[in-house]
Amino acid sequence: MQDLKSATQRKLSFFATLKAVCWSFVGIRKKSGYEQDAAKLNPVYVIVAGILGVVIFITTLILIVKHVVSG
Q1: What is the pLDDT of residue 6?
Q2: How far apart are CA 70 and CA 50, in angstroms?
Q3: For 5-38, how does the pLDDT look when each residue is reduced to its tens digit (9 = 90+)?
Q4: Dihedral sign for Cα atoms in the order 6, 17, 59, 30
């Protein structure tokens, strides 16, 4: 239980976590950068940023498909 509390009090901000999640969506990242981020990421922020990234990705795909089909 103490590990969970310490994990949620890590130092990286939400926007830095969002940046790390975006890099993971692209798949281009140095191992050293990944390891530095992984040590500082707040797991709650990662989940929220991941869900937000998926929603944006799916919305973008839907808009592209609607645009292509209509024209």
Answers
A1: 61
A2: 30
A3: 565 556 778 888 888 888 888 887 778 877 887 7
A4: negative
Give ∠ CA 27-50-59 in degrees, rounded to 5.
90
- Amino acid in position 66: K
Q: What is the pTM of this model?
A: 0.70
For residue 28, the SS3 value is coil
C-alpha span between 66 and 29 (Å, rounded):
32
Half-sphere exposure of 27 (CA within 13 A, CB side): 0
- What is the chain's length? 71
Domain extent for 12: 2-70
Report CA torsion sign: 19, 37, 16, 44: positive
CA distance 48 to 51: 5
